[in-house]
Specification:
about 500 residues, alpha/beta, six-stranded mixed beta sheet, two-stranded antiparallel sheet, 15 helices, about 50% helix, globular
Amino acid sequence: MSTSMLPVDELVGALAAPRVMPVLEKRLSQVRRHRAGTTVADTVIIALAAAVTATGQMITAETSVITAHRPALTAVIAAAVVALAWAASLVWLRAGAYRRGVGERLALLPILHSAVIGLAALAIVEGVSGSVVLPAHVAVTLPVGVAALVAAHAVRRTWMTQHRTTHSMATRTLVVGDRTSVEHVIRSLTADSRFSHNVVGTVVQGADSGTVDVDGAAYTVVAAPDGVAELARSLCIETVIVAGGSDDPDYVRRLSWSLEGAATNLILATRLADVARSRIAFERTNGLALTHVSIPRFDQPTMRTKRMLDVVVALVALVPIAVITPIIALLIRMDTPGGVFFKQQRIGRDGREFSILKFRTMTATAEKDRAALEEQNEGAGPLFKMKDDPRVTRVGAVLRKYSLDELPQFWNVLRGDMSVVGPRPPLPSEVRDYNGQVFRRLYVQPGITGLWQISGRSDLSWEQSVRLDLHYVENWSLATDLRIILRTAAVMVRPNGAY
């Protein structure tokens, strides 16, 4: 029956926009109340931090750097501007984080980002009015506000954990697709602590029931692909992730229509992984969404820029290294007999062999003794690793824990054998076992540090190590190198996975 033949009341009902079911509305209301409470608390914290600064400015108005006819009014206006801009941008950035299912590791970034926006707004006001108010807020409001917001976040997280409601605020997610794609998406989401998706069910093509087993956890298959929208409403689903595998080119479009009044977000998962956001651009044309991916460049001008950074960092680092080397050398010689330095052949860029230089951390007969320990190898792939390697000396264990054994490698960097940041330098025996895409690790110079160093070090599996190295090879930039260098310093202070 066409809509023109329906009675008026039925016609209105047929053409009305989909309504959110009461059970889903209740869930969304719960989430909104939680976020509103968080917003109010954070706004109060920011306002108090700005008020502290304004109060200090008014108390010291006579000797203050505030150059205005009404210093008290100027201080109040400045505090209001920074507080409003900071709080408003924090709400906006947090909304985007919630929408993407951001987890613990990325939940703190909106705090820092919004703080910068607040100070930028105040800088504009200062430039227009001529009143010097920014330094006081940088010195007081910024550190006090950030510290208090981080502390409040930690308190909320602890309270939610203790009351077992951690997942109640996590995005309730349904994963749709063929079995292999669904398994891959769930495995990727659960392995990355930056995201917080509570996968409450799956929809697998060709299966109306059963489970999807991922790393020992079972996820229930709750419906057939045609029942996603109805299921999303009944299970209070907030995000539907389409993992791919459909042969119907219009499936996603119809699914998005059917989800109106149900799920709040629709995410299309793709295997286009390990590509930095800066290399991806999106465009639309008639009937198509185009994804542009920039291809990695390994030309000489690009590598020359990286080399300049390496030389500068190596020259700066070798000065303090020269000071502490005699002390480390004395400790090594006093601990066990043998040389101070350890040389070993490694493979560099384009397969070139070079001698890597490290402080000796094992006994002098370590290479000969390895054969007797092969059965106890805990490393994956071609790597040889042992948490309790008997060849490691007492001083060597400390040097390894804090990565001090790698300091002489800055000489390799200065020589051009290595880079400060890059893939882990492999042994010739490891390279002989390479296959396929693993050879891409040799497209750039190996590094003293890299993504593998700041992501678990020896605790990483062979597959994880390879994936991190390949990600770096394809997406490196000077900004990435500087970020890894800074994070490496933090890892050295709080070592994890080094043995």
